[in-house]
Amino acid sequence: MLYGITAAATALLLTALLAAALRVPALRLRLVERRRQREVPLSGGVAVVVVTGAVVGVTEWGAAGSGIDGLLVAGGVVALLGLVDDVWRLRRRVLAGGTGVAAACVVPYGETGVGTGLLAVVWVVGVTFAFRGLDHADGLAGTVGVVTAFGVAACAAIDVLDGIAVLMSVLAAALTGFLLHNWHPARVALGSCGSMAAGFVIAVGLVHVRAGFGIGESAGVLFALTALACADAVLVLLARRLSGRPVVRSGPDHLAHRLRRLGPTVPGVTLLLGFGAFSGVLVGVLAHVGWVGADALWWVPGVALVVVFALSRVPVYADRRTVSPQVRASLRVRSG
């Protein structure tokens, strides 16, 4: 217990320091996020990935290993792929293909079976991109990541999966250190490097935690723990399809964008969505433990559908025939 607390505290402190130290070099190298109205350096993602890998690596060595070396390597590969995307803007299919290959290498087929394992790979890719999409608003990706990682850590600790529990706890702590610089107004951002790595590690960790359980209930737990990110991705995809816009086209159409149009401040939206993420995670953890029945899991997608439907009615796409080029330029926000 004390060892885990020390590792988490170390991760928090080192991430906060490294993210700040890398901020100026990132600005000089033009490694910046342009999805907001100002350029934000992407030092946060590199800091989270480096510190998480280093602290967990040392913890693994001190504990004589706990079987998560493959997950660490796969997460590092996804982080590197995201970093390349931050610099050169890779095509989505390249990102999806690379993430899928990394996931296929670490899914526990022995416990899930080949068919379910392949479905898990698809789900991991989807969650990874869903977390990537959350990194468009100050504090949002970090907040949701912290809440979700702690939820997965709790599930892993209950099942005595010490390696997964430590990894998730350190990741949550690193994201907390990152949030010290990412809260509105953000001074650093995660970028594809940090957001994809965090989403990938969380998703694969969840698959390992639920491996061997029933498919139906496991699907409910997986969705509950990642409900906010999944709901955001579903809303964006449906909105763009129904409006006739290309799915990969940027637009101010995420949950946070729509809530902002209803009046709340940026921190207010982040706290509201963070509470939504916490609610889903709480239900997922309680269902995993067995303290609530599987029927309770149906409430999560039900509420998510209501929220998605309600916010889909909020207008976010401007009519190009009536909007000036200057206003159109200000509305271009990359969805991730």
In short:
With 336 residues, the chain is mainly α.
Number of contiguous helices = 16
Strand order of the largest sheet: 1-2
Major beta-sheet overview: 2 strands, antiparallel
Strand pairing plus helix content: what structural class? mainly alpha
Kindly state the percentage of residues in helix: over 70%
Order of helices and strands: HHEEHHHHHHHHHHHHHH
Shape field: globular
- CA-to-CA gap between the ends? 37 Å
| Average pLDDT taken over every residue | 90
**CA gyration radius, whole angstroms:** 19 Å
Portion in strands: under 5%
Number of strands: 2
- The unreliable regions are 320-324, 326-336
Describe the SSE topology:
Blueprint: H1 2-21, H2 23-28, E1 32-33, E2 40-41, H3 43-62, H4 69-88, H5 92-104, H6 109-112, H7 114-134, H8 140-158, H9 162-182, H10 191-210, H11 215-225, H12 227-242, H13 255-261, H14 266-289, H15 299-312, H16 325-331
Antiparallel strand pairs: 1-2
Helix pairs in contact: 1-3, 1-9, 3-4, 3-9, 3-10, 4-5, 4-10, 5-7, 7-10, 7-12, 8-9, 8-10, 8-14, 11-14, 12-15, 13-14
Keywords:
1% strand, two-stranded antiparallel ribbon, single chain, 336 residues, mainly alpha
Report on the architecture of this protein:
The chain is mainly α. Helices cover about 70% and strands about 0% of the residues. It has 16 helices and 2 strands. The chain has a two-stranded antiparallel sheet with strand order 1-2. Helix 3 runs antiparallel to helix 9. It is globular. It starts with a helix and ends in a 5-residue tail after the last helix. The relative contact order is 0.14. The C terminus is likely disordered.
